[in-house]
Amino acid sequence: MNRTVIIDVETTGLSVKRGGRVIEVGAVEVVGNSIVAEFDTLIDTGAEISYGAYLVHGISQEMLCGKPQPEEVWKRFLEFAGDAQMVAHNAPFDSSFVRHEVALLGDTIPNSWHCTVRLARRCLPHLANHKLDTVYRYLFGSLPESVQRHRALDDARLAARIWVKLMELN
Question: Is 114 a catalytic residue?
Answer without folding.
Answer: no
